[in-house]
């Protein structure tokens, strides 16, 4: 039988790489909770119409990148390419909008897009997603950017730049789009790439986001959207910048920053890293006032962002030591049960450790403990059972002591520290 291989672009994750992802998720939950955000869990599958309505039927995501298929009843379903649409669908269906104040949600998990696999970008990738619904105020925009910076800093990711722009609103953006179309009208096949020739007709804003060097050079002198903001959008953008300045948070204005999804209005932002090469964006988001109404809910303002976990993982280092605190060497069959119970009592106190499932020699037990990287090797045989002790060898300095079972917890606390949850 031929070996079954995994699908290209869908990665397996094991330790230590999976430890990094778990660390990112735990850090996100801890930091976001400080700002009042609660976790939500949503399906991987949604009706295709949800993404066509929210992301935009003419976007590259919907046109070229989604995994879409009919189910057995002929309904068109799509593996989620991003989390915002699903969270907003749940927000409307679960009537979270009926609650007072701002609904603050975060989620994490796999997303799916059919793209060329490369470093930091897979067809199944993972995101941390954050949404805040219910306030149009610029203070919410600023707080979200400050929270994102807090999250990245706590992950140890510091060599970053926050890029900031405003995309205007549904009143002032059409005026800008007319000016941009006029600018692009004279650029024909020999000048723009094939994608941008299509974009300039149906979604001209996306031409500014093209990564092809020739297209970027041709649009260097394109009109800036911030020159076309209406008074309300200009006041909103100035307020966001003022609050970030007051908080001492650095940013740079990026008038070409448009993001890849149609639903963004007003504040939009991206975090780029100087440490991972060309694919430097590690987080991005913005306001999407009006999107909830487009999905059948009440007219609710909102703002959110997503972080690509694969790219964050490239930048995270110095995780807490995952090596065990102890390993047990069992020298006699009669010691199997006492060893299991001893190990379990230490684990309940917060110590990490392992135990074998059959007896062996002291030499093989010490060799195994060293291979695992354990700090202490607990040696338990017939003589130790009779005496009510365990031989504890510290693999850091070679010292060995006979320790009473009743005193083992205090011995651990003295040798390797008192973990959280240990009484006294």
UniProtKB/TrEMBL annotation:
Q: Which InterPro entries match?
A: aa-tRNA-synth_II (IPR006195), aa-tRNA-synth_II/BPL/LPL (IPR045864), Anticodon-bd (IPR004154), Anticodon-bd_dom_sf (IPR036621), His-tRNA-ligase (IPR015807), HisRS-like_core (IPR041715), HisRS/HisZ (IPR004516)
Enzyme class, broadest EC rank: ligase
Query: What Gene Ontology molecular-function terms does this entry list?
Result: ATP binding; histidine-tRNA ligase activity
- Annotated keywords: Aminoacyl-tRNA synthetase, ATP-binding, Cytoplasm, Ligase, Nucleotide-binding, Protein biosynthesis
Q: Which GO terms describe its biological process?
A: histidyl-tRNA aminoacylation
Q: Which CDD domains match?
A: HisRS-like_core
Q: Locate the Aminoacyl-transfer RNA synthetases class-II family profile domain: which residues?
A: 20-333
| Organism domain of life | Bacteria
Q: Which GO terms describe its cellular component?
A: cytoplasm
Q: Which reaction does it catalyse?
A: tRNA(His) + L-histidine + ATP = L-histidyl-tRNA(His) + AMP + diphosphate + H(+)
Binding positions (L-histidine) = 82-84, 113, 127, 131, 259, 263-264
Oligomeric state and interaction partners are given as: Homodimer.
- Stored NCBIfam families: hisS
Name of the featured protein? Histidine--tRNA ligase
């Amino acid at each position: 039988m031929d070996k079954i291989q995994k699908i290209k672009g869908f990665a397996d994750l094991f330790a230590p790489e999976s430890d990094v992802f778990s660390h990112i998720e735990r850090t996100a939950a801890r930091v976001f909770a400080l700002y009042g955000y609660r976790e939500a869990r949503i399906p991987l599958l949604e009706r295709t119409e949800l993404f066509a309505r929210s992301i935009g039927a003419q976007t590259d995501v919907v046109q070229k990148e989604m995994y879409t298929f009919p189910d057995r009843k002929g309904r068109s379903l799509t593996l989620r390419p991003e989390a915002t649409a699903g969270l907003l669908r749940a927000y409307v269906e679960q009537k979270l909008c009926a609650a007072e104040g701002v609904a603050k949600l975060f989620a994490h998990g796999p997303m799916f897009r059919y793209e060329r696999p490369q470093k930091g970008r897979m067809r199944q990738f993972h995101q941390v997603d954050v949404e805040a619904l219910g306030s149009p105020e610029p203070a919410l925009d600023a707080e979200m950017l400050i929270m994102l910076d807090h999250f990245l800093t706590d992950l140890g990711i510091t060599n970053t730049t926050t890029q900031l722009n405003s995309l205007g609103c549904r009143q002032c953006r059409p005026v800008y789009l007319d000016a941009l179309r006029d600018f692009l009208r004279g650029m024909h096949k020999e000048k723009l790439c094939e994608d941008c020739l299509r974009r300039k007709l149906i979604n001209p804003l996306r031409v500014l986001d093209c990564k092809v060097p020739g297209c970027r050079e041709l649009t260097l002198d394109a009109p800036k959207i911030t020159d076309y903001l209406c008074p309300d959008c200009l006041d909103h953008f100035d307020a966001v910048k003022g609050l970030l300045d007051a908080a001492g948070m650095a940013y740079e204005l990026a008038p070409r920053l448009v993001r890849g999804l149609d639903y963004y209005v007003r504040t939009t932002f991206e975090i780029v890293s100087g440490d991972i090469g060309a694919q430097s964006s590690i987080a991005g988001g913005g306001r999407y006032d009006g999107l909830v109404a487009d999905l059948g809910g009440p007219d609710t303002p909102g703002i959110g962002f997503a972080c690509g976990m694969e790219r964050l993982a490239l930048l995270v280092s110095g995780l807490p030591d995952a090596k065990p605190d102890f390993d047990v060497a069992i020298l006699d069959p009669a010691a199997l049960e006492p060893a299991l119970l001893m190990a379990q009592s230490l684990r309940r106190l917060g110590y990490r450790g392992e135990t074998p499932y059959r007896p062996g020699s002291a030499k093989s037990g010490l060799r195994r403990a060293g291979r695992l990287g354990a700090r202490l090797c607990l040696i338990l045989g017939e003589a130790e059972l009779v005496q009510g002790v365990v031989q504890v060898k510290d693999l850091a300095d070679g010292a060995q002591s006979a320790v009473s079972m009743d005193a083992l917890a205090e011995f651990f606390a003295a040798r390797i520290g008192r973990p959280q949850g240990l009484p006294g």
